[in-house]
Amino acid sequence: MIPADVLARFEETTGFMPTEEGEALHAVARGARAGTWLEIGTYCGKSTVLLADAARQVGARLVTVDHHHGSEENQPGWEWHDESLVDADSGRLDTLPHFRRVLDENADVLSAIVADTRLVATWWTTPLELLFLDGNHTEETAQQDYTQFARHLVPEGLLLVHDVFPDPADGGQAPWNVVRRAVAEGFEQIAVHGSLRVLRRS
Ligand code: SAH
Ligand code: MG
Q1: How far is CA 73 from the centre of its chain?
Q2: Pairing label, strands 128-133, 196-200
Q3: Which residues line ligand 1 (CB under 6 A)?
Q4: 163: domain range?
Q5: What Å distances lie between residue 149 and 38, 100, 165, CA to CA?
Q6: What is the pLDDT of residues 11-42, one digit of tens each?
Q7: Mutation test residue for ligand 1: of 14, 38, 42, 164, the one with most atoms within 8 Å of CB
Q8: CA atoms within 13 A on the CB side of 78
Q9: Which residue, by CA, sits nearest to atom 12 of ligand 1?
């Protein structure tokens, strides 16, 4: 169960996660082992709220990565653009100020990296018990994030992938292609909750 105050914060945080998928994310994470968990794609911290609470319950620590300037589909003129997240001075989409409250409220378990995942991948070495891929949805970057970070999952570590749509009519194919590749590389799919896939490393 998600504590009422955590659920309330999740619901009032801007982002891209339906409540049912959030509940599934929280439940799955609570079943993960302590250690280091990594989220790719923070945005304003909506999914982060749930992962941080689960991490606290399990005794894990959570790291979340985002450059905070949004994905292609968040830019002006695209389907998922939110005008209210544009910084008045820079004129750029900037989710970092909107994430600050979630960061402060979870400072006991949460570290935020404000950087491009391609840079983080060049120095990341920590073994992972849980990896949540919810970042860039272009084929190239989604594949690259999987390549660079899934290799740090320990045996039986959990790989969660968001926005998985096997039917192109429902959404972009990059996360689905990541799931197919993970299965081909030996990950076992253990659950499907809407567009959220849960896999376990063998
Ligand atoms: N997990 C969030 C949604 C994340 S949206 C929620 O629950 O609402 C995807 C995020 O990936 C965006 O915030 C975007 O800035 C980030 N992103 C896209 N490409 C990136 C890259 N190359 N490096 C770091 N972050 C990236
Ligand atoms: Mg998503």
Answers
A1: 16
A2: unpaired
A3: 15-17, 41, 43, 46-47, 65-71, 95, 116-118, 134-136, 141
A4: 4-200
A5: 9, 25, 21
A6: 999 999 999 999 999 999 999 999 999 999 99
A7: 42
A8: 11
A9: 70
Which residue puts its alpha carbon closest to atom 14 of ligand 1? 70
- How many separate domains does the chain show? 1
Pick from 113, 129, 108: which is nearest to 41 by CA? 113
What's 71's domain CATH number?
3.40.50.150
Q: Which of 67, 68, 137, 162 is catalytic?
A: 137
Q: pLDDT of 41-93, one tens digit each?
A: 999 999 999 999 999 999 999 999 999 999 999 999 998 999 999 999 999 99
- Of 96, 2, 86, 92, the C-alpha closest to 45 is 96
Burial level of 172, CB count in 10 A (0-12/13-18/19+)? middle
Atom nearest to 117 CA in ligand 1: 23
Residue holding tokens 């439940």? 27
